[in-house]
């Protein structure tokens, strides 16, 4: 076993600015440019190229057969769920220190890493209609947040993300077609929807609510950009109508003190008794009173390197995230009565 003391931070810490924090709360999403280095993103791109060529595989994921044409190979994959449980590269990006730095400021200081998806989105591949991520991944309290890392340039033509600012204040709409058991059904007058994520706005009835905002925003991105978005915000993407891929690596997280009765459809101990699956998910930052998993491939994080990524409290004084004189979010001790308000 590798001792926590042997770990060293490999990336310069990213400090979120106060204006960024405000923008995330106001709009429901935050676009940070160049958060991940070009060399790292290129490694992801090369791996997906190798997958489509049949030169690399992810354990448990079928590979294209040798008799497929190059065009057929490029369309063989659409998306891969939970690659971090089988691939060191995916685990590394799930726990990327600079991505988790932002998460620590937005939903932390304790962060649980839940899920990964690798999107290929080759020319002609479909987009995903209006949806809310917390509809699919429940956390209690609801602290879900996504991090969308661009591998290729993403623009309107090849199917970039579209966000609906302000919709993060909406509840999670339950469905009437049995797709999930999620939704804020405790609200007396909440409307049930059907066909969430369907690209046809006449079929996906969540679209009727989303389009009432009338201010959908396209979020074009360059490789290395990361788009953070809350679990309630309405968002979608369109079909790739270009001749270029729009690959992305998407991860989901929550505050590590939230209960997570979710394991990507797989069973887990205590599920029938209403138990949670926190012990299946990795503690990325901070600490928690709930169970958590270790990273399978040993990527440094709070779970295996608490001295580096564990609790930020170096004494017994209570601290809060506040803005400093330079506009950065920092932990400030409650040294006087002014900090207690």
Characterization of this structure:
With 341 residues, the protein is of the alpha+beta class. The chain has two domains: 4-38 and 78-310, q2cbj1_9rhob like domain (Jelly Rolls); 314-341, no CATH class. It has seven helices and 13 strands. The strands form three sheets. Strands 1, 2, 3, 5, 8, 10 and 11 form a seven-stranded antiparallel β-sheet that branches. Strands 4-9-6-7 form a four-stranded antiparallel β-sheet. It has a two-stranded antiparallel ribbon with strand order 12-13. The longest helix is centred in the first third of the chain and has 16 residues, at 38-53.
Feature tags:
single chain; 341 residues; Jelly Rolls; 7-stranded antiparallel sheet; 4-stranded antiparallel sheet
How is this structure best summarized?
By secondary structure, this protein is an alpha+beta fold.
